[in-house]
From TrEMBL:
Residues 20-60 form the F-box domain. It comes from Nicotiana attenuata (Coyote tobacco). This is F-boxkelch-repeat protein. The lineage of its organism: Eukaryota, Viridiplantae, Streptophyta, Embryophyta, Tracheophyta. Coiled coil: none annotated. It holds the Pfam family FBA_3.
Length: 213
């Protein structure tokens, strides 16, 4: 009896759906640039919750910070010009002999209320992708350039008796023990006869607005 070879049935792609584990999705997302993560928040509610979680944000920052190729790093510089903050790719410094720095569209640049002295913006410091800017010495802004959001901090001027200050400096950093970003201000009058320190805890001020990628 002649046997006819069995004809294989066409395989439908719909029957080959393999569920992707949450762990695998997380590992993939953690290695993507912020611009891609911003778009992928719209995929589903679960992806939005994952990408917006503090744990994911910290893990993403850690991976980016330890990237030996510096592909996600930018170098920012102050210049004595009308719009005096520029940036360039950090990785390009290792690969090219000549690089170009570009004008940054930072928040205080486009805000006319701060332009009494157009070259007064300066970088106080940066940590974990957040930039602290000082405008005309006493107006402070914390800015996340990756998501183009910023927060203006409360008036930093001290309540010393004199209205002018001979010296003032700011510092910006991250308090790992309290999981908090802080700005420190030092103000003096005269021959150090009046000194005032201010420490801003940004945990309440910023919330997660600037930290969500």
């Amino acid at each position: 009896m002649e046997q006819h070879p069995k004809q294989s049935k066409p395989i439908k792609h719909s029957s080959f759906k393999i569920p992707i584990q949450t762990e695998l999705i997380t590992e993939i997302l953690l290695r993507l640039p912020v611009e891609s993560l911003l778009r992928f928040r719209c995929v589903s509610k679960s992806w939005l919750a994952l990408i917006s979680s503090p744990e994911f944000v910290k893990a993403h920052l850690n991976i980016s910070a330890n990237n030996k190729d510096y592909t996600h790093h930018r170098l920012m510089m102050n210049f004595e010009s009308k719009y005096n903050i520029k940036d360039c790719s950090l990785s390009s410094l290792f690969n090219e002999s000549v690089i170009e720095a570009f004008d940054l569209d930072y928040p205080t640049k486009s805000n006319g209320s701060y332009k009494r002295f157009p070259n007064s913006d300066r970088i106080v410091g940066s940590v974990n992708g957040l930039i602290c800017l000082a405008m005309e010495d006493y107006d402070l802004v914390v800015w996340n350039p990756s998501i183009r959001k910023y927060k203006k901090l409360p008036d930093s001027r001290p309540r010393l008796e004199r209205m002018t200050y001979d010296f003032h400096r700011y510092g910006f950093g991250y308090d790992e023990f309290h999981d908090d970003y802080k700005v420190v201000g030092i103000f003096t009058c005269g021959s150090l006869d009046q000194v005032e320190f201010k420490i801003y805890s940004l945990k309440v001020i910023l919330g997660q607005v600037l930290l969500i990628v």
